UniProtKB/TrEMBL annotation, chain A:
Its main location: endoplasmic reticulum. Residues 175-292 form the Palmitoyltransferase DHHC domain. InterPro entries: Palmitoyltrfase_DHHC, PFA4/ZDH16/20/ERF2-like. GO terms for cellular component: endoplasmic reticulum membrane; Golgi apparatus. GO terms for molecular function: protein-cysteine S-palmitoyltransferase activity. This is Palmitoyltransferase.
From TrEMBL, chain B:
Interacts with ERF2. Belongs to the ERF4 family. Coiled coil: none annotated. This is Ras modification protein ERF4.
Length: 358, 222
């Protein structure tokens, strides 16, 4: 009986209405330019291709570019494009109107220009890395317990498992099963419903970069914030010097504009940077912070670790290093590798029945 | 036992209860079933005390319609968090040897078949068929080697990592691009170790295979 169920399950899973299965390929072979375009922008899965990036759109909510080298979440507002333009615009204005004048001043002002371009370049590169790289997506369907009965889950898989941890005071760590991805998630991994994937050491989903912030891109995210603050500060200083030396304000309109723009552009990244510095020093991710914070003591929550935090090392510097410098490791769901036919990672299994809360 | 229905994230503050039993480690991949067929009997419902312990699982690394799927099973070794929380560490004990494992009535640590569930044979304890293939010492050696590579690949608290991260930031990520080409990552060395192990006599003769940890997302061994 269970064997028959297995066969039924086998027949049912590719055609279940809940699965994201692409339509049949047309009989004619796609031409080379269509292949080129597909390699450039991959927004739907193709059964005939064996690269991971051609099958991943079946299970995760990403579009891939340049053969899986870059990625962006699909179906969301493209705020990251707006941020990209907001990054490029001041650099262009600065280059056209301010850079040469500052350079000519000599006596160290050239260093100001160089430093601005340097930090701006770091900001741009880290923004692109944050927005387009793998945040630490975990593979699906690694821990499927039962194949029969439409891949249902045993009751114990719905529990949160409490396990002993390395914390010297005996604090415990919680492990939870993700019913969507069908994996036992490590602590701090979390499922993002926008990206439709479980992400390692999930911090938050950032709409401004249109990507999750997780283990593999957290350092780029912090670099982006820090370099943005530095570049805007240097821009304000450089333009301020120009304004101070100008005889008439109408000669330095762009400089004044840039000062205002950079002052506004400094606020949010600086706030976020300070917030993350406090969070990392108290060994919390954004997700953990939001989970534990009652609204009255929001600031206090950022300054001290929650009581039950098993990751706390008792030392702010050690906490910061373990989070800021967390190792990227290797991509475990790499978009550029290939897979064989029937790979479970790219199959959407039927959703398990949910329990009603009574 | 915590349930996902009663939220552990509720704002209600639970007073610290020092009388609560200490958390013990167990293999959370395993689960129990009570409707199964004892060997030689028909499928029927059994009591909780005689629940069959599911210790091996479908091979999710082989296509569903393949022969390999039908002929092989997976034993999952869970991650353990008592050593540290910064890098993945796998349990070095065979399933059934963990502190909170279900034990055989006679206390032995052998796989004792008892019943069928979904056409597969299981026992009443947490001991899996893997115990018939590898001794605890062999198993521990293998997993400790895997853990060593994982520490080298994921430990953030080394000067090398901090300096490398700093250089990476200052050189527009070119440092990382260079390093991955010049220096072999311990995690890729781990893949080589697993390949060598799978080709070794120990594994070939017993017809067992260790699944690439990278393929399983470092979530479990096998």
């Amino acid at each position: 009986m269970s064997e028959r169920n297995l066969q039924e399950g086998h027949h049912r899973s590719p055609t279940n209405g809940e699965c994201k299965v692409p339509t049949q390929e047309p009989n004619a072979q796609p031409s080379w330019w269509r292949d080129c375009l597909y390699w450039l922008v991959t927004f739907e899965a193709r059964e005939t291709r064996k690269s991971n990036y051609s099958s991943m759109p079946k299970v995760v909510n990403y579009n891939f570019f340049l053969g899986g080298r870059l990625r962006a979440v699909s179906g969301t507002e493209p705020l990251s494009l707006f941020v990209l333009i907001a990054l490029l615009a001041p650099m262009v204005l600065y280059s056209i109107f301010e850079a040469q004048a500052l350079w000519r001043l000599g006596r160290g002002h050239g260093a100001l220009v160089i430093l601005f371009y340097y930090f701006w370049a770091i900001c741009l590169v880290s923004f692109i890395k944050t927005a387009t790289s793998d945040p630490g997506v975990l593979p699906r369907n690694v821990h499927v317990p039962i194949v029969g009965e439409e891949f249902q889950l045993p009751r114990s898989y719905y529990n949160i498992i409490t396990l002993p941890s390395a914390h010297p005071e005996g604090k415990t760590v919680d492990v939870k099963y993700c019913a969507t991805c069908r994996i036992w998630r490590p602590p701090r991994a979390s499922h993002c419903s926008t990206c439709e994937a479980c992400v390692l050491t999930h911090d938050h989903h950032c709409t401004w970069v249109n990507n999750c912030i997780g283990q593999r891109n957290y350092r780029y995210f912090l670099t982006f914030l820090a370099s943005c603050c530095l570049a805007t500060t240097l821009c304000i200083v450089g333009c301020g010097i120009r304004v101070a030396q100008a005889t008439r304000p109408d000669r330095v309109v762009v400089a004044i504009l840039l000062i205002i723009y950079c002052a506004l552009g400094l606020c949010y990244p600086l706030l976020l940077l300070v917030y993350h510095m406090f969070l990392t020093s108290t060994q919390q991710t954004t997700r953990e912070y939001l989970k534990h914070v009652p609204s009255k003591t929001a600031i206090r929550q950022a300054l001290s670790s929650p009581n039950a935090n098993p990751f706390e090392k008792g030392n702010r510097i050690k906490n910061m290093i373990s989070l800021i410098c967390q190792r990227r490791g290797v991509s475990v769901m790499s978009a550029r590798e290939s897979h064989s036919a029937g790979d479970w990672r790219f199959v959407s299994l039927p959703q398990p029945h949910s329990f009603e809360k009574v | 036992m915590n349930s996902a229905l009663t939220s552990s994230n509720s704002k209600h503050v639970v007073p610290d209860d020092s009388d609560q039993p200490k958390a013990l480690f167990f293999n959370y991949h395993e689960f129990s079933v009570t409707d199964y067929a004892e060997i030689g009997k028909e499928c029927s419902e059994h009591e909780e005390e005689l629940a069959l312990c599911i210790t091996h699982f479908p091979n999710t690394y082989a296509p569903l319609d393949s022969i390999r799927f039908k002929q092989t099973r997976i034993v999952r070794i869970p991650r353990r968090y008592e050593d540290n929380l910064d890098w993945p560490v796998f349990c070095t004990l065979l399933p059934g040897h963990e502190p909170a494992a279900l034990v055989n009535q006679d206390g032995s640590l052998q796989f004792v078949p008892y019943g069928f569930y979904e056409n597969q044979i299981y026992g009443l304890s947490s001991v899996s068929p893997l115990s018939s293939y590898l001794s605890p010492e062999e198993f521990k050696d293998i997993v400790e080697t895997v853990n060593m590579y994982l520490r080298q690949g994921y430990d953030p608290n080394t000067w090398r990592n901090i300096i490398s991260a700093t250089f990476d930031v200052l050189t527009f990520n070119l440092w990382n691009c260079l390093m991955i080409r010049l220096v072999s990552s311990p995690l890729l060395k781990l893949e080589n170790y697993v390949e060598t192990l799978n080709k070794s006599k120990l594994f070939k003769n017993k017809n067992i295979r260790l699944i690439s940890p990278r393929r399983s997302g470092f979530l479990s061994v096998c």
